């Protein structure tokens, strides 16, 4: 097999779930906690499948499992906050990624302008309403309209890579300077871009 061939490509072979997870683990992600209020109680879950979607209109997306009780609460409320975790929030991530019934026990938070929990110490937050929901296999793909967001902080983000927490280099504490050539990467595609 050549370096450019892929095992099982074009053969209709079944994808091995373990290998699929391992391959996807090669993609480093940030970690978020998606939160809402349901029946006057805070609800939330750890989420790696979060991304920016559109600048105009301002949209983000996340992908909860179809069996998620937290997603059911977000769907009922119609609103949510994305809490981007800072490097020192590993224990917070582990708590919200667990089956713990009261994930907010011992967690300090304040309500966002739309009322969703903003976790104390989070690197950033984005306050949204549910715009649309799409089928995504065993997950949903949820588009959220951004209503407000936090100020920019200089702390480092919590990252997840190859099944474990990681971080950026200690001396890299601020984002790279803005580059005009990245503008097209963050905006809608036109016929002159490859997006």
From TrEMBL:
SUPFAM superfamilies: FMN-binding split barrel (SSF50475). GO terms for molecular function: FMN binding; monooxygenase activity; riboflavin reductase (NADPH) activity. Pfam families: Flavin_Reduct (PF01613). Keywords: Monooxygenase, Oxidoreductase. Residues 24-167 form the Flavin reductase like domain. Belongs to the non-flavoprotein flavin reductase family. PANTHER family: FLAVIN REDUCTASE, FLAVIN-DEPENDENT MONOOXYGENASE, REDUCTASE SUBUNIT HSAB. This is Monooxygenase. It comes from Rhodococcus hoagii (Corynebacterium equii).
């Amino acid at each position: 097999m050549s370096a450019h061939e892929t095992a099982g490509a074009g053969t209709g072979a079944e994808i091995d779930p373990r290998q699929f997870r391992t391959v996807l683990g090669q993609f480093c992600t940030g970690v978020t906690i998606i939160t809402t209020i349901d029946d006057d109680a805070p609800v939330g879950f750890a989420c790696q499948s979060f991304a920016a979607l559109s600048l105009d209109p301002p949209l983000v997306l996340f992908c909860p499992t179809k069996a998620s009780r937290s997603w059911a609460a977000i769907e009922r409320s119609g609103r949510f906050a994305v809490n981007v975790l800072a490097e020192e929030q590993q224990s917070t991530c582990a708590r919200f990624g667990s089956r713990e019934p009261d994930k907010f026990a011992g967690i300090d938070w304040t309500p966002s302008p739309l009322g969703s929990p903003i976790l104390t110490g989070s690197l950033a937050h984005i306050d949204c309403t549910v715009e649309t929901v799409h089928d995504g296999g065993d997950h949903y793909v949820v588009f959220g309209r951004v209503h407000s967001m936090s100020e920019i902080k200089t702390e480092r983000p919590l990252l997840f890579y190859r099944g474990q927490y990681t971080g950026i280099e200690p001396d890299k504490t601020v984002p790279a300077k803005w580059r005009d050539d990245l503008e097209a990467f963050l905006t809608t595609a036109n016929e002159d871009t490859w997006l």
